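Retro notes, item 3 of 5
We never archived the inputs for the adenosine-5-diphosphoribose complex last cycle. Fixing that now. Sequence and ligand:
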Amino acid sequence: MEDLIKKVAGHIAAAKHLVALTGAGISVESGIPPFRGKGGLWEKFDPMEVGHIQSFMRNPEKVWRLLISEMRDVLVSAKPNAGHLGLARLEELGILKTVITQNVDGLHQMAGSRDVVEFHGNFAWLRCMDCGSREQTVDIDLSQMPPKCGCGGIYRHECVFFGEMIPPKELDRSQIAASTCDLMLVVGCSAVVQPAAFMPVIAKQSGAMVIEINPEPTPLTGTTSTILVKGKAGKAMREITAEVERIIAAKRQQ
Ligand code: APR
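Structure as it came back at the time:
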């Protein structure tokens, strides 16, 4: 494992334009459950019932109550872990240019990452479905369900539900980042939800190397990605970042 960490750190330190794609797995060590796999949200709920725009339109109160009960408290108290902090440090070192995240938890920004594409939106903001006005989730009165705007319209989170398009600006920025990077790091991502899972394929087709960090192999492993660091994001990123710093310090001394 030590050799693999050194190898990955070497690739990162040599990269001119590193882009990261992150999924729910990077936030597991911050106490946020993933969607798939053991303990995942989709073990308890049917994603098509909770996560589909048509379910929300049919019964916004039910979806609101589930989202709030399952996600609000966890997201409000979650703090970035070594995975998020490692990516922020790589940006500070000038190696990492963009984080594309499928997560709606805001932890990359909290860790200090500045260029973050929120591919599936975020949980922090709400939008009125009638007049479009925006409010922060923490500021909203939850005594009435579903919460409503002054105009009478229902608020929804600025998250992308199943059945909805990825916002064009985020899709564009991600495609540009994926096609211009020379290395893509895919962290904690099951790579089964499209179009996010296609970003590493675009990177590979554009000539980049793709490296994964995940305790489990994914559909990308061995096809699109050439290296899988099999483990938890926090531990792996802490070790990789420390090694990248060592390589950079050694180069400076030469
Ligand atoms: N560190 C790194 N990876 C981990 C860890 C960890 N500590 N724990 C779990 N994982 C991995 C799992 O092995 C899995 O591959 O994280 C991945 C989590 O997969 P998903 O729950 O499917 O999360 P994600 O890939 O982000 O899902 C994509 O699906 O339901 C939708 O909109 C939701 O954005 C989400 C999308």
